[in-house]
Amino acid sequence: MNILQNHIQALVFCAQSPISIEEIQRCLQESLGMEEILVSDVLEAVEGINEQLMEAGFAFQIYAIGGGYQFLTKPEYQETVSTYLKHKSKKKLSASSLETLAIIAYKQPVTRSAIEQIRGVGCDYAVHKLLEKELIEIRGKADTIGRPVLYGTSQKFMDYFGINHIKDLPQLRDFATEENAIGETAD
């Protein structure tokens, strides 16, 4: 199992994006000359790697994200990493780009006119920048007059925000506050 763990660590480490179990299996079978590596063996090895990293006190571990596995920093180091990234990245998303991205994430697939209808202003520049940053992608064309382009979030969006599926986005009810409440609530 130790040899398997070392090879899995190497694969996860060198992968530029989350690596799927199927990719891990295929690479291990080919490189180690094994006929079959079971999903349970890969999962057990990943669990063993994470236990070793935990015992040794490392600041990172392997996380299941974006349909695969990736080395990520543990949550308790988020503030330090965020500070570093804030200083490193000068190209942030503007408020209009964030609004546009949120609309696309929650309403996808969605047309540019639908986004503009929700925002109340044009969104050509924001959509162009989000496409450039590969946070959104073209998902096809709508079956309406003029066949407008449909936009949706990309895999890079999932990786960037650390979610596995679009259903992992916070729901509106998570942010809702009771309206028309007077005084304190009784327990």
TrEMBL record:
Signal peptide: none annotated. One of its GO terms (biological process) is chromosome separation. Pfam families: SMC_ScpB (PF04079). The keyword Ligase does not apply. The keyword Cell division applies. Keywords: Cell cycle, Cell division, Chromosome partition, Cytoplasm. It comes from the Bacteria. This is SMC-Scp complex subunit ScpB. It comes from Pontibacter diazotrophicus. The lineage of its organism: Bacteria, Pseudomonadati, Bacteroidota, Cytophagia, Cytophagales.
